[in-house]
Amino acid sequence: MILWEALQYEFMRNALLAGILASIACGIVGALVVVRKMSMISGGISHAAFGGIGLGYLLGFDPLYGALAFTTASAVIMGFIRERMGISEDSAIGIIWVTGMSLGVILIGLSPGYAPDLFSYLFGSILAVPSSDLIVMAVLDAVILVIVYFLYEEFLAVSFDEDFAKASGVPTERVYLILLSLVALTVVILIRVVGVILVIAMLTVPAVTALQFSRRLNEIMLLSSILSIIFTVEGLWFSYIFNIPSGATIVLVSVVTFLLASALKKIF
Amino acid sequence: MSEVIRLENVWVKYGDIVVLEDINLSIYEYDFLGIIGPNGGGKTTLLKVILGLIKPTRGKVTVLGDTPEESRRYVGYVPQVTLFDREFPATVLDVVLMGRLGRKGILGRYGKEDLKVAYEALESVEMLELKDRRVGELSGGQLQRVLLARALVTDPKILLLDEPTASVDEPTKTNLYELLKKINNKVTIVLVSHDMGVISSYVEKIACLNRRLFYHGSPEMEGRAVEETYQCPIYLIAHGFPHRVLKKHKRGK
User: Fold this and answer.
1) DSSP character for A198?
2) Are the beta carbons of B59 and B11 closer than 8 angstroms?
């Protein structure tokens, strides 16, 4: 098998591991994103990450930490905008989205020399994940799992009927803020795999596909993690065989599978 | 009888649009109050003000002698069925248990007591058999009863219902009101609806809301009397004269 042959290389093994770690996060958090209908907010948060990446380039630290700071900050800002109003959530998303991207472009422009592997942050480079990033990804995965384990019922209730949850004493604002922070962490994990521009695909497509086949949120989380692993491996494999960019291939494989699954479900 | 809900000169504005204008309302323990009025008349807003989900622009709201926020845990809320996402991945039991969330603490889990209470509530609304059904697969009337069960597990002193009969057929409506009648022995009920026909035969007091609250009294009247007393531009759906439109309000008392 070509895949086994490919796995003799360390970069391929790292890629596979990164794919699995990313799939755990995007399956679980993606299910919440889809059920809570917050894919556009996730788009805003993921694009804001680019500002942090730019800061990393300019000041010479790992851009992934910059991304983490920016996604978390934009998650908090989104949460506050919704509570304190003034402007609509929709406009806020747009503003955060473009502010992050523009900041990133300017900061990278200000950085001395040219920016190596800039493309990998934009479109992902799962084939070039260093082992140190794998550790960061594993830690973030663990944080996400613990939070979702404890707040599962709250997330479900707030997504189903926020007014009722609030009326029955759930601190809905805090729960929502935590949910946005989970998205922020997941975005950072996913940047390595598909890049800031395509993160939104991994947060939605596997979960929407899973939603077609399951009626429980926890099943959807599990199923979309599994689907996401399958998509990642498939995408990696295609990109290896045809020598095409991996991130975009993973996304297209996911979308095609989703379309096939929807069509099959309609037929049967 | 003690007063459980009191609204004094309550105004709610969204920007420049006045949704509730100078509402004064007293609701007493074990009342069964029906509030009727046209769509957009502020009925849902009024319920949300009582729940503390919407802060009045002006005026004072007292629930069980305290602020709405403080008294929230004694108030059960049954929102409109039509607002729900039919694709949502939750079972009937999941939804009913949501009523227990406020008690278990944010890091806690549901315990045996929570399950017991949820089963009892499902039993009382005759939905226990469907407890593992996905909520999206329920009919409007079934979902309505599930939402009622969810409100009941909070063990409320006051129950607020928003259009509980909107997507329900006639026999189910009657069942629902019989059930509410039973619950009313222990719980104060406030129900808003644009469908007055069924309401008037069950509720004890009726009020009419179209931005302003117009009348507040006993509903024992029919036909022309209804028209004259309520003076509401509502759609009156009752036996004998379906879909009849009443005249515009005469302003003032």
Assistant:
1) T
2) yes
Partner-chain contact B106 A35, CB within 8 Å: no
Given a cut of 50, is residue A184 above it in pLDDT?
yes
The structural domains of chain B, ordered by start, are 3-245 (3.40.50.300)
Reference A193, options A89, A112, A120; nearest CA is: A120
H-helix or E-strand spanning residue B206: strand B205-210
Q: Do B89 and A168 touch (CB under 8 A)?
A: no
Report residue A227 as tokens. 């689907």
Residue A35: which of B88, B98, B106 has the nearest Cβ? Answer: B88
The structure tokens 């497509």 sit at A205
**Structure confidence by residue, pLDDT tens digits, A229-241:** 999 999 988 988 8
Shortest distance between the Cα of A215 and any Cα of chain B, in A, equals 5
Residue boundaries of the structural domains of chain A? 2-260
Comparing C-alpha atoms, which of A77, A79, A117, A84 is closest to residue A100?
Answer: A77
From A103, A125, A99, A115, select the one nearest A55 (Cα to Cα): A103
* B49-74 CB burial, b ≥16 within 10 A, e <16: bbbbbbebeebebbbbeeebbebbbb
| Strand boundaries in B15-86, DSSP class E | 17-28, 32-36, 58-63, 75-78
d(CA B247, CA A155): 47
Residues 6+ apart with CB under 8 A from A164: A157, B77, B79, B98, B99, B150
- The rounded distance, in Å, linking the Cα atoms of A188 and A68 is 6
- The ipTM of this complex is 0.83
- Whole-number pLDDT of residue B235: 41
User: Which residues, listed in sequence order, are joined to residue B216 by a DSSP beta bridge?
Assistant: B207
pTM for the structure as a whole: 0.86
- For residue A72, give Cα distances in angstroms to A79, A82, B21: 11, 16, 42
Structure tokens at B249: 């309000």
Angle at CA B221, nearest 5°, toward B215 and B227? 60
Distance, CA of A14 to CA of A131 (rounded, Å): 7
Q: Does domain A2-260 sit in CATH 1.10.3470.10?
A: yes
**How big is the A-B interface in CB pairs under 8 Å?**
84
**Under a CB-based contact definition with an 8 Å cutoff, are residues A247 and A198 in contact?**
yes
